[in-house]
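Complex record, two chains
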Amino acid sequence: MDKYSFDKLTLSLSDSLYRTANSILRNEDEAIDAVQDVLLKLWEIRADLASVDNQKAFVFKALRNKCLDIIKLRKQTIEVDENKLDEDLNPYEQLAIRDTVELVYRLIENLPELQRTVIRMRDVEELEIDEIAFVMGISNNAVSTNLSRARQKIRTQLFKLT
Amino acid sequence: MKNIDELLNKYFQALSALDEEKQLKEYFSSDAVKPEHLKYKALFGFFEKEKTEKLEPAIKDKLVKSSDSNKSKTTFRILLSLASGIAAAILLFVILQLPKHKAIESYIVINGQKTANAQLAYQYAEDKIDDLAMLLSKSVAPINQTEDVLQGSLQPISQTETAIEIISNYENDISAIINSSTLKNNSNGNNSNENKH
């Protein structure tokens, strides 16, 4: 893969990669570092990248692995109590964010990492189920199950809060 | 457009295709959202809003430039490694080939014919050195004779020098005798004058 093709691929994905990294890491600076590291790694293996069937999914997988490495290094749990939202927000704040996209953002951010990444990859980045399965290293059925759970959980909490 | 409720059901069961989900997003971003569907508007609105979240141009620029810089460094490192590898390979090749060349090139020419026989070569060299020594001794003999002749020629000069030295000694002796006799005469003259007085 030449420089032009590489830049075309990575630049077209850079925003998606940043959003995904930021969602997993919850830290803008770390997200940018993760994307940068992944782009560099991909540049080093660009010869192999040309033969990859689904380059988009491959890049996302490399990014997710990088993010998980960063999380392991900082030894922080990314799992958050699903009911944390209710505890974090007082009734006035809950009222203020009602019917806004901010509420959905908070609901998604409080999902377990697997569900949060799956729903973002599907509903924001618009990846196919098999692409998500490849990125996450799970089966298509597992992706569908987690996606369904995430969506229903958000719907339930959204209805509860609005 | 399919029935929205049907699409929503498929959506929440994760059975909808990407195209169907796009239809839902289009529907909820329009002004034609029915009142019973308004509760989903924020959800699909969030996804559309998230897509607009992009890296700031300055950050993206920095990211790409930094990557380019690292790419150059990486390329340089790869080229350096490659060059080092090639240099090492060439050196190894030369080292491996060196004894071989030496073996091939270690020969002498005797009477117009190449030979790699070391014993023969030593014998030949010794003979030649003996010949050379003999030639040298013959060449040195006339020089020795010349030296003898020169020595003979110098002998009269040496004898003359000796004669001159003897004569010189005689001269000194004669001068000393003359001086002493003069002093005697002067002394005798003075004594006779005193006696007269």
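Note: The two ends of chain B are 185 Å apart (CA to CA).
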